[in-house]
Design brief:
This protein is mainly α. The chain contains 20 helices and two strands. A hairpin with a 7-residue loop joins strand 1 and strand 2. Helix 16 packs across helix 18 and helix 17 packs antiparallel against helix 18. The longest helix is centred in the N-terminal third of the chain and has 30 residues. The N terminus is likely disordered.
């Protein structure tokens, strides 16, 4: 029993290390061209990648002087990376870890609200999260921040015009990581987090991503089967479910993401539904090669850092190695902009996530 438990512990640690590496590397890859993609569109993104001789993307993107990329995020370009630069995608993953350390599987939406008040500076939150935080700040009492009841309906925080955008979806990954084989629990944890700022499709996207992550260690049919498991935890007629099925079908037939753009180009580049379709497509199309998965996802456009981070983290849960040319540049250094946190080491993040996963799955309980 002891040997088996130790062997399983090694497997859990290996998967979670690859998940963190995959998420961080994908985020840094997409961050370099995030603003270009969202402001100027896929054609401008493709033009930059062609000029940089970066197509197909299989490594970090080169910097081209005199471009918006060189102005926005040069520190995320090939040859200029020395750490994981602060980004909301990684902030929320670390914040989810902090909340799970404090509350475990009993995490509530009120707990999420308190954590936001404690850790989220206003300048690092956007769209739905910013609207929800503004409402929290306006309505919260001192007692609530110290652990009392909110004193108002937290549903007011999600009453905002961005509540079906991508924010909750990018907060969901870690809930799947720490609940291997329990997609319903993972989805429910993601729901409790998401409902502070999102509604409807914004919540369903978060639930789906968490459920895919929880399903990956339990399925024999590959990543496609994990997506099918996740489809069972969200409404079958939801727009998110339709988007996931579209992404999966295109990947199965070897098609590119053009049909996703044709169908969803009317949506915001940071909407949940279109980006979820691209995530599923990129994950399944690149199932056997990490560089293909994150590279083609970024080349697909829209919210490049969010999508590549999600794809990279899910891909890492397979337990396969993330190639060294992705991990060596940032050298295990993970900078975040959460209040009171600063820079973390990858090894610390992995060990803490393993501890949470063991506690939530019952592995840490004494007989």
């Amino acid at each position: 029993m002891g040997d088996a438990a130790a062997s399983d512990d090694v497997g859990v640690e290996h998967r979670l290390r690859s998940a963190w590496q995959g998420r961080i590397s994908g985020c840094q890859l997409g961050k370099a061209v995030e603003l270009l993609s969202m402001r100027e569109g896929r054609a401008a993104l493709t033009a930059y990648l062609a000029r940089a001789e970066a197509l197909p993307i299989r490594d970090y993107i080169p910097l081209v002087l005199g471009t918006s990329v060189a102005h926005d995020f040069p520190e995320c370009c090939r040859g200029h990376i020395n750490r994981c630069e602060p980004d909301d995608d990684i902030n929320y993953s670390v914040l989810a870890l902090l909340m799970l350390e404090d509350h475990g599987a009993g995490l509530s939406t009120s707990d999420v609200a308190r954590a936001w008040l404690r850790h989220l500076p206003g300048g690092i939150v956007f769209t739905a999260e910013r609207e929800a935080l503004v409402t929290l700040l306006a309505k919260s009492s001192y007692g609530f921040t110290l652990g009392g009841e909110p004193g108002f309906d937290l549903g007011e925080c999600s009453d905002n015009r961005f509540n079906d955008w991508i924010g909750a979806q990018i907060r969901a990954d870690v809930y799947g990581w720490v609940a291997p084989g329990r997609p319903e629990l993972a989805a429910d944890l993601a729901r409790r987090d998401a409902e502070l700022s999102h509604r409807g499709e914004g919540v369903f996207g978060a639930m789906a991503v968490a459920a895919i992550g929880a399903a990956i260690p339990m399925v024999d049919g590959g990543l496609d089967a994990a997506v099918e498991v996740a489809l069972d935890v969200i409404p079958a007629r939801s727009e998110c479910a339709t988007a996931m099925r579209l992404g999966a079908e295109l990947a199965r037939t070897g098609a590119g993401p053009d049909e996703i753009h044709r169908r969803y180009d009317h949506l915001s580049p940071v909407h949940t539904v279109n980006n979820l379709a691209l995530v599923v497509w990129g994950l399944l199309a690149g199932e056997h090669d990490y560089s293909t998965a994150v590279g083609d996802t970024v080349a697909g456009g829209w919210d490049t850092d969010c999508n590549a981070a999600t794809v990279g983290g899910l891909w890492g849960l397979t337990g396969r190695e993330i190639p060294q040319h992705w991990t060596e540049p940032w050298d295990g250094r993970v900078a975040v902009s959460l209040a009171g946190v600063g820079e973390l080491a990858l090894d610390e993040l992995v060990s803490r996530t393993v501890a949470v996963a063991r506690a939530i799955t019952g592995e840490g309980r004494q007989p």
